[in-house]
Amino acid sequence: xxxEHVARxxxxxxxxxxxxxxxxxxxxxDGNQVEQALADVRSKIYPRSVSGxxxxxxxxxxxxxxxxxxxxxxxxxxxxxxxxxxxxxRKFYLFGAVLWPQDVIYLAVLxxxxxxxxxxxxxxxxxLFCGYACPQTVYTEIFxxxxxxxxxxxxxxxxxxxxxxxxxxxxxxxxxxFVWVVLALWTGFTFIGYFAPIRALGAxxxxxxxxxxxxxxxxxxxxxxxxxxxxxxxxxxxxMCPYARxxxxxxxxxxxxxxxxxxxxxxxxxxxxxxxxxEAGMGDCVDCTLCVQVCPTGIDIREGLQYMCIGCGACxxxxxxxxDKMGYEPGLIRxxxxxxxxxxxxxxxxxxxxxxxxxxxxxxxLAGIAIALLVSMLTRTTLRVDVMRDRGALGREVAGGFIENxxxxxxxxxxxxxxxxRIGAEGLPGMQIIVADQQGExxxxxxxxxxxxxxxxxxxMAGLSPGLYDMDLTFIAESASGRNTAVTEQSSFYVPx
Length: 497
Prior knowledge:
Elements: H1 33-42, H2 53-71, E1 76-77, E2 80-81, E3 83-86, E4 91-94, E5 97-99, H3 104-125, H4 128-132, H5 135-151, H6 154-162, H7 167-192, H8 198-206, H9 212-232, H10 234-240, H11 243-246, E6 257-260, H12 262-265, H13 290-293, H14 314-326, E7 333-336, H15 338-343, H16 347-352, H17 357-379, E8 383-389, E9 396-398, E10 402-413, E11 419-426, E12 432-435, E13 442-445, E14 449-460, E15 467-479, E16 486-495
Helix pairs in contact: 2-5, 3-17, 5-7, 5-9, 7-9
Transmembrane segments: 57-77, 104-125, 178-195, 215-232, 359-379
Region (Disordered): 1-31
Domain 4Fe-4S ferredoxin-type: 276-304, 309-331
């Protein structure tokens, strides 16, 4: 890393930072904090590139998340797209599973699991998701990599923006935005590829024959990606993301967060490497402000944990490099807890405090619900039957002294293999069942399809009194092709006056 220093803060006796997340205000001499806040919103942040262990983790997470996002729609399973949320057909394909609207309970359970995971991970290590896997962070990192590759690092970008427009500036800006737009359009195309077969979608895109809604959502998502990752960046994290606002209720004194060790670092100030700063009464912080320059949200971590901090660890990498050059112990800024700073605990002592009651409760709940969901998914039947009475004729008397009721069976085969079903009924004496438009009592239901089967049930009138025989009739649908599949559904039988 190049040693680039900015003006140092002359006040080295500042109050030690508070640990709780807070919004940091920097009032101007005239006290107009509102005007200063608006200026902060309008000002552009130029994050400096940084290398280190946490930078490598961020790069790895960018590759992992984008390989999954861009690659998943192209995977095939049983001759179809492996992951497809077909809203038109109201089917969700997840590898070997086919989910129908009736499976909405699984979506509810997934939302509960996501909430519990959010509580657990935040209580353990703060905003790790924001710093490493959030789409806003990931795409901002990608767009910033393109920007640095074309325009240069922090200083070069500042100089380029400040200089008047000329041929070189136009060329660099045009090249950057061209790459950004291509990435954004590919992202929008991939996004709608989760809701329509992506291979057919690609052919339609090449021939410019996409439907109006497909064009709309591809361009809308591309525009959102280009705007959020290219321009808004930290503003999304600081002013739009609700997670930043309520994280303070999910962290405590034992949560691992990016923390500046003010006890060790203060009083801060510039110095030569040849002096003994301890004898000079100075802390380890050399006030180089590199921790601020590499921060993607532009905060100063030395002022305490703030809600704008996304926990990316860029300041940790930058500070450790400065400590190494100065010959000081690394970890002036590190992942640790507020209690560790106050009570001067070692990292081993901090880790021992991770298993506190709330963490155990979150873990047990998360594991229990996840196991229950997995068992339910693995053991669920692939056949569903809904019984609907014919409301046009509740019951009627027919020749031969029989009472006849008409039903419609909505048969859903969630498996991808065809299913031969035998339809039967029981519960009333001497009853007969007629499967309309079928030969015998079997029906063929294609894979991942549903079938509406009209059923006529007749029973001798002798011995039956008029009225509704509630839940006395049981329909049975079982596999006639050797598969261990059977479903029973109850209904009522009506005897007219």
